[in-house]
Amino acid sequence: MTEFSQSSLATEHWPFLLNLLPQTAYLVGGAVRDGLLSRQPAHLDLDFVLPERAVKTARQIASYYKAGFVLLDAERQIARVVFQAPGREATVDFAQMEGGTLEADLQRRDYTINAIAYNPFTAKFIDPLQGQADLARKLLRMVAYKNLQDDPLRLLRAYRQAAQLGFQLEPDTHTALRQLAALLPQMAVERIRTELNYMLNLPQGTAWVQRAWEDGLLSPWFPQANQRFPQLTGLDQAVTRLQETWPQLRIQVTLNLKADLRDTIKMSRLALAKLATLLTHDPEIAELELVKLRYSKIEIRSAVILIKHLAQIQQVPPETMTPSQQYLLFKATGDLFPALVVMAMAQGLIPQAMAELIQRYFTPTDPVAHPVPLVTGKDLMKRLALSPSPQIGELLDAIQLAQVEGKISTAADAIDFAQAILTLPPE
What we know:
Elements: E1 26-28, H1 30-36, E2 44-50, H2 54-65, E3 68-73, E4 78-83, E5 90-96, H3 102-107, E6 117-119, E7 124-126, H4 131-137, E8 139-140, H5 145-150, H6 153-165, E9 168-169, H7 171-180, H8 189-201, H9 205-214, H10 229-245, H11 247-253, H12 269-278, H13 283-292, H14 297-315, H15 323-333, H16 337-346, H17 355-361, H18 377-384, H19 390-404, H20 411-423
Parallel strand pairs: 2-5, 8-9
Antiparallel strand pairs: 1-2, 3-4, 4-5, 6-7
Helix pairs in contact: 6-8, 6-9, 8-9, 10-11, 10-12, 10-16, 12-14, 12-16, 13-14, 14-16, 19-20
């Protein structure tokens, strides 16, 4: 195998000049693997190993280009250089060889396809573990049982990489993953969450999430997920069906959540729907499951909203909803509505049942999905001599419902309506 992606192995596309690297430096890991597979990742991520002076080399390159420098591990001599100039965005890691030699370093890695080194000065590959042969066979093979045992996160990474690359697990490797699965809870949940998010975001990741659960890697965090696998598969099928009936909705459901998430892997609305499907469908228990994995507040809130309103749709069929019920659904779900649609479809609801809701969602002037407020909180306080309090929000909600129901249509109506509420005797 000699073809490779110009974005990862062609030195002219690197964010720094080759002559700034010591002659003893080798490119290793995912960049070599992706280059041999002609894959072009969205973000250039290079990993180099050197027999010595790894951190010093990183500092020199960072200083020369005025790039970001991060000392990742002083003891193991690992540093990162971050290039952020337009057209030259990249992350480049430099590490001292473990074991003292290149071959010893490669022997410490997780899978053979990630244990190939590339000499950028000679354009030669160093492949003592036959990783290129496994690439050709589309096979994920462990380097050593102990390597997985020493870093259990590598177990889950196997399923993620198989999903990303379209590979299969080599039988002995698969056996080892199952045998070592009980070690995974020892790892930081943030790292587990990141690997899970990778799979949830991948169209082909659903099957691998299921396999990881069945092999014991995800069951500690999702105890009832085995009851959800048909719905999980149904989500992908629903998105495919949307391409024929509601292509705009299909696009919406693949967009990322509008939030500054902590993970480098942002979650799409579809991935969130998959996550919500894996959870116990009691909102309070689901929230605890997400807290255990340290998801962000916005992710937790969003998943719980989907669970709650999926239950609502199952109890009150969308085609029978009143305008007020529709309004409250849109208000609660907001940009999550497309994810709710695919979850409902995965549960067996036909798209036609939600046609009116979907049409309203995509009509910017629709008075139910996108009502224009008749008055503001300031208007109420000024006209009715009210002080700031939770009561203002309650009045605005009541006004909005009355507007949706066609009871009021002007600002004056809204003020009169609020005044009438204030004059009602307390219950």
